[in-house]
Amino acid sequence: MSEKRHLLSILVDNEPGVLSRIAGLFSGRGYNIESLSVAPTNETGVSRVTMVTIADKEIMEQIKKQLHKLINVITVQDLTGSNFIQRELALIKVHAKSDNREEIVRIVNIFRYKIVDVDHDCFIIQATAKGDKLEAFIKLLTPMGIKEIVKTGSIALYRGN
Description:
Alpha-Beta Plaits; alpha+beta
């Protein structure tokens, strides 16, 4: 069986230790978490854990069943292959010397991102996109001299109802 990237959306009770139990399930069975994002939802006392892992179909079924067994897990959805919207957020600090400032601004504008901080020798850029578009942007900025990058994990929601 071939392994592929899976994006899981897990609703959990917003209580201490829930994330630790989920991470423990993955580490205890040798599964890797590639990306992880957690935040409260619009429903009081409920948080959404969005995670990315790589697994084949059989392992993914095991993961979902084991997650369902955990206390405080409300639902587990594998969004992979469905109709969903996915985004990541990145803050990128790039060298902005006098000879490359205009080029950086041009690239930022082409991607419709935003420069959120300007210093005498660097810009901080806010970029929100799907992972592949974000990676293309980072690749274009790399020759300019990226000083630092911080990225969130993937977040995602089903489209429509």
